Amino acid sequence: MGATLSKEEEARIAQKQREEIDALAAKYKAEVISERLSRVRASKEARARAKKEAERLASKAAQSKSSTAPQNSATPTRKAKSGAPVVPLRPKKTVSDTNGDAKGVQKVKDNQRDNGR
């Protein structure tokens, strides 16, 4: 087993190994590039689908908008029934508007005082 290889055989073996390594590297590069391209293609398609969906929803919303409703109104409006004027809806009262918390607390205190606590 102690046979030594000639310089030509060593060069031939080294060349063969380099070719195998280059072939594997090229194959890996091709896989990486194709995967990146597929990701880019998929994201472009997703963006295109999202854009189409947004346009569809925008056109649908534009069609369904009532012509009697004021544009950019801060308050919601009711639909007019049989020619009645469109009246803005009153905003719902919140707890802070009615001071509900303060009244509730006072009521509890009054009840406790009346019950002798």
TrEMBL record:
Region entry Disordered, spans: 38-117
Bias kind Low complexity: ranges: 59-69
Compositional bias per record (Basic and acidic residues), positions renumbered to this chain: 38-58, 107-117
Top-level taxon: Eukaryota
Name the UniProt record assigns to this protein: Uncharacterized protein
Organism: Teratosphaeria nubilosa
